[in-house]
Amino acid sequence: xxENTESKEGVKPVHAVRSxxxxxxxxxxxxxxxxxxxxxxxxxxxxxxxxxDSDDWASTDNYSKNDLHNLMTVSQKLFxxxxxxxxEQKEKEQE
Length: 95
Hints:
The protein is α+β, with helices and mostly antiparallel strands. The protein has 1 helix and 4 strands. A 4-stranded antiparallel sheet has the order 1-2-3-4, with helices on one face. A hairpin with a 2-residue loop joins strand 1 and strand 2 (22-33).
């Protein structure tokens, strides 16, 4: 499964982090709920690796024991970023 930081429409993630070969991205989405546009975020975490039979790079969502620390680090950084965004949004709403 090939993975880019850009979607097919050329949209980039709002935030991306990396630890070792594990990388995480946060994607901004909007949806209409009761006539209002609601903003929400999705996270994607993948591991990059070089294919054994070529020099091509690929991505996977399978992790070994040795990847778990990097997976935890990336997850924590994504969580912290999203919490910051939520706090920032609350402060804007209070103004």
